[in-house]
Write a structure and sequence with these properties.
seven-stranded parallel beta sheet, alpha/beta, Rossmann fold, single chain, 15 helices, six-stranded parallel beta sheet
Length: 421
């Protein structure tokens, strides 16, 4: 088997979000098992060409491609060179066994290239799609036109669709039904996102399954955060759909009712054109001096997660699981999530709350977590093991093994089609 990822954006452009980091983790894992390739666009999040040093350091092959339009790329419409398609077909033809192509985008040139490669190579090329929160509807004329032409064929071509949670699996089923891909509905599997532990030293962060008080004080002191205050945090892109404004309203509502004068809310992230609106909303809130907006953070994010008491993620659109929320969980920090950011195990194992958002419900959930904080924090740390790299990537191995076995069985049943398999 040869494993190929094809994507418009890729590591080390971490600011593009969790999709990049998860695909990077998959590739590194698969490289220890099979011949692994990544075919990716060559621009980073600042629209600069990625240097070759990162690619050369990987234990798998990375091929980069320029974009047909840098102007469109700046608008998040990525059109990598058709040479990407040529190289995909060349790799598939050179390898005589099963070719697994893994995609993380729903629309665009990459998806068209996958369809064309399937037409040329045949069903020996197996297509896996991970939704990564990308199934939510974003109406536009361009998307509508694209869907009429290509969405049905693409969904019908999928051999495996990977969802993050039950909600996203349901979104897959609805989308497949809408575009006449009903036969593919049994090809949907749930695989949670995984996080990687930070490379920084976390020695002494935990004792007896909970945050160590001395370590917590030391981390807060290093970050210049108050020692005894309740600290809530959000980390993510500064985007209108991330729910940051209603998170501010939630914090202020809870703070007013609790009477806690020391509580703070840390809003950490990277601007996508919405930072000024966030700052205005915070400045006009009931507690402007209790809200801090922090940018330029990446590796230090685990320190902020550990120093915080509750992670708040309440986006207004369905993005499914937030990778940042799982990283916070690994730091023993319980989660308050809206349904749009659902993650498996959180409600079931009482590692936080997942709610249908309205302000009163959210305040009550926050009060519940704070009121039983030690238990929620311990459960957060215990629950995080479900999302660690090892168990999740072992599950990925199982999915790919099943795909391989089914391919062999299909080949045995249809010997006359051997040239296409």
């Amino acid at each position: 088997m040869i494993y190929i990822q094809m994507c418009s954006t890729y590591a080390p452009s971490w600011a593009f979000g969790g999709v990049v980091r998860i695909l990077y983790g998959y590739a590194g894992h698969m490289a220890g098992r099979v011949d692994t390739w990544v075919l990716a666009g060559n621009l980073d999040e600042r629209q600069r060409v990625v240097s070759s040093g990162f690619d050369d350091a990987q234990n798998y092959s990375v091929q980069r491609y320029g974009f047909l339009s840098r102007r469109l790329a700046r608008r998040n419409i990525h059109t990598p060179s058709v040479r990407m398609l040529w190289d995909l077909v060349r790799l598939a033809k050179r390898h005589k066994g099963l070719v697994v192509l893994h995609l993380g985008e729903l629309r665009g040139a990459v998806n068209l290239y996958a369809l064309l490669a399937r037409f040329v190579v045949g069903r020996r090329l197996r297509i896996i799609h991970s939704a990564f929160g990308g199934l939510h509807e974003k109406p536009s004329r361009l998307r509508a036109a694209y869907d009429r032409l290509l969405m049905g064929p693409f969904l019908k071509s999928l051999d495996l669709a990977i969802a993050q949670n039950e909600h996203e699996a349901g979104e897959y089923r609805q989308l497949m039904s809408a575009f006449g891909a009903r036969a593919s509905q049994d090809r949907i599997s749930i695989l949670p996102l995984h996080f990687d532990h930070p490379t920084s030293d976390r020695t002494g962060w935990f004792e007896n399954g909970a945050k160590a008080p001395a370590a917590r004080r030391a981390v807060r002191r290093a970050l210049e955060l108050p020692q005894e205050a309740l600290i809530f945090c959000f980390l993510g892109r500064f985007h209108p759909k991330k729910g940051i404004l209603r998170a501010i309203d939630l914090f202020c509502g809870w703070k007013a009712e609790s009477g806690d004068d020391t509580a703070q809310f840390l809003i950490i992230g990277r601007d996508e054109g919405f930072e000024q609106e966030i700052r205005r909303h915070a400045a006009n809130s009931a507690f402007p001096d209790s809200i801090r907006i922090i940018t330029g953070i990446y590796a230090e994010r685990f320190d902020y997660f550990y120093a915080s008491d509750v992670f708040i993620g309440v986006p207004t659109m369905f993005e499914e699981t937030m990778l940042a929320s799982l990283e916070a969980l690994s730091c023993g920090t319980p989660l308050l999530l809206s349904r749009e950011a659902d993650a498996p195990y959180i409600e079931e194992e009482r590692a936080g709350r997942v709610i249908d958002f309205d302000l009163e419900t959210a305040k009550a959930a926050l009060k519940e977590i704070v009121g039983d904080y030690e238990r929620f924090s311990r459960q957060a740390l215990a629950t995080s093991v479900h999302f660690e790299r090892g168990p999740v990537l072992t599950a990925l191995d199982a999915l790919l093994s099943q795909l391989t076995e089914e391919t062999v069985q299909h080949h045995a049943r249809t010997p006359a089609l051997g040239s296409d398999l």
